[in-house]
Amino acid sequence: MQYLIYGLISGSILATAAVGFALIRQTEGFLNIAHGQFLLLGGTFGYLAVTSLGLPIWIATVVAALTVGLVGVLAAVLVMHPLKGRGPLTLLFTSVGLSYVIQGLVVGLYGTGVNTFPVSFGDQITLGSVRITWGEIAIIAVAAVSIVSLHLFLTRTPVGTSIRAVSSNPQLAKVRGIRTEETSLTVWFIASSLAGLAGVLLGLMGAVHSEMGWSNILLILAATVLGGLGRIYGVVVAALLLGILMDMSSLVIPTSYRLVVAFGALILVLIVRPQGLFTLQRRKQVA
């Protein structure tokens, strides 16, 4: 049961990151590999806000998430949008290049050290054989509130309606008078902010280091494919399942094989259900 709690924490953080990745994929039409480095930026900014500026962790988390959101908008304006008409493969490889640039800047400025947040997770609560701290409960709650807030934003606001329209049919949305360029920048801000938030949460659970972007983009990709490309809510469920599966596997195999378990599950799903766990396969119409 204890490993189930660990898996829920891991899955919550992964879901926060993966839902932003899926949002970019659905509206922009490509896999943004640089999304992983936005986690690194979030963890780095959060750590600096706590240690250098002396901000409380909750304020540092908000500042880091918003700052990474602005970095995402800047990346979209300066790098991605000028190449938008050249196809998804061009954008994909450009995002890979952007990943190396971001990581190089972070390493150049702050080195390759491993940094842990100087914060306490509070008292530990024991319920039978299960132990959890208030800090871990807060991480799950923050992830849940973020995802629910995104859902409400997409379904209850005019901007959210515009985002769903653009993701469904960009050309038709533009004809209907939706400002697709502004909508795209809104998506970049939201998705990047979620990545920044996930980076802080990851740093709190472990540490902030220069490789956290590359190691986590693989898990984000796995969760996105498992949930079904273009299925944001399916990705959330898949991320939770993947987090639980990886941590529960620690009962029988070493924790160093967590990635092997994740991608083993991904390969199995691709063989049995290539469209993803939560994508409804449409029947082909016969003329």
From TrEMBL:
Q: Which CDD domains match?
A: TM_PBP1_LivH_like (cd06582)
| Key word Nucleotide-binding present | no
Q: Where mainly located?
A: membrane
Residues spanning the membrane? 6-24, 31-50, 56-79, 91-112, 132-154, 185-205, 217-245, 257-276
Q: Report whether NADP shows up as a keyword of the record.
A: no
The listed locations are:
Cell membrane
* Xref: Pfam families: BPD_transp_2
Q: How does it sit in the membrane?
A: Multi-pass membrane protein
InterPro entries named in the record: ABC_transp_permease, BCAA_transport_permease
Q: Which UniProt keywords apply?
A: Amino-acid transport, Cell membrane, Membrane, Transmembrane, Transmembrane helix, Transport
Which family does the entry's similarity section mention?
Belongs to the binding-protein-dependent transport system permease family. LivHM subfamily.
- PANTHER family reported for this sequence: AMINO ACID ABC TRANSPORTER PERMEASE PROTEIN, BRANCHED-CHAIN AMINO ACID TRANSPORT SYSTEM PERMEASE PROTEIN LIVH
This chain belongs to the protein called: Branched-chain amino acid ABC transporter permease
Lineage, please? Answer: Bacteria, Bacillati, Actinomycetota, Actinomycetes, Micrococcales
